[in-house]
């Protein structure tokens, strides 16, 4: 958590963080891949207010939606966000506690100029964050965040008689539910009444998911549905390890599937009818298959898909079957949003189960993804659908190193790929593609690691790839 520590040190000694970030290793003071994230001692009301003033200025002093999740620090940070926005002349629409995809969906609906969502997504409860989205629904990247940071010391307050009262809007979740219901075959779900177990993570998924699936006609069994900002049920990240209760419950209830979201509901994973955990990569791959099948039915031409360099080759393979081109982006939701616009992509997604359905919004929407899956399982079981998704084994490892070593490894990997005439993508780390496998060597943006991730048709091949590239990376450090 290098950026967090540097910024935290800067906040404590009250000097600009940039003065501590030597040699231009990282020019971003506060913004990471998707907003500003930190523990409460760092992301406190004082810093939050200053950030909100700069964000309000960056977004043109317009109409801004504010939402938060259930974290204990959410309310006090919401006050600071609202105050900061109002002080620079923004009109604030407070939608209260809501999931991230709900808040993002409301931007178009309310003709807003942007949104600030107070949520640390899948991080532990002591963390919080400001996710920022512009008026087009595009999440603010680290690069655009740097533009906001530059405004922080030169914020111009509104004249006293230009400060506007906030409005409260309480129908956001209901409107999001109605919009999702229109994008699935509600009649088929109503008829089939699939039995589903949903794990709401003690956070905002509990506000929307039980109602959505009951209204669609499912038989719904809920776990971790009580809102509690300490997340007593399970950690926020829906990893296989963290959703053991869901896995057991799906088997016990002989349910058609299990669904679990991360804390703010943009990421989703599934448990199939056989009780098997379905990783995010396969959730995205199956989402692509379902969408392309649907488009084929309506005889529309398929165009393109956007995904990050860390996502399974299964996506590209499925795309090819439908004549659809796959574009790769850097890792992070903002880059996916930007790619959807640039390539007019019909879908975008990432390996952790975040899927963007541009037919609704540019948000990664874990509820629409879940509703589409529930729609699909009315036709055939989830395990049967998954058989149509090409299967790849993946392996991962990491090497501990500092920023200078990270840069050395990545540069070395690029040289290696060039010298050996390998096909590679170097927009975020170095991803080397082989006919039936690939490997990526990438520096973590938040931790002192270089991560190595490989995927192959054979488990042994994936293992060999991570080992081989770990050795190559280590060699760069021994020079
Ligand atoms: Mg999230």
Spatial gap, N to C terminus: 27 Å
Q: Main sheet, how many strands, which sense, barrel? A: 7 strands, mixed
Q: Indicate the radius of gyration in whole angstroms.
A: 22 Å
Ligand types: magnesium ion
Q: Overall mean pLDDT score?
A: 92
SS content category? alpha/beta
How helix-rich are the residues, as a percent range? 40-55%
Q: Strand content of the residues, in percent?
A: 15-25%
Number of strands: 21
Name the poorly predicted regions.
1-26
Strand order of the largest sheet: 1-2-6-5-3-4-7
Q: What count of helical segments does DSSP give? A: 17
Q: In one word, what is the shape?
A: globular
Structure report:
The protein contains 17 helices and 21 strands. With 479 residues, the chain is α/β, with parallel strands linked by helices. The chain has a seven-stranded mixed sheet, with helices on both faces. A five-stranded mixed sheet has the order 9-8-10-11-12, with helices on both faces. A five-stranded antiparallel sheet has the order 17-21-20-19-18. Bound molecules: magnesium ion. Magnesium ion binds at residues 121-122, 262, 264, 266-267.
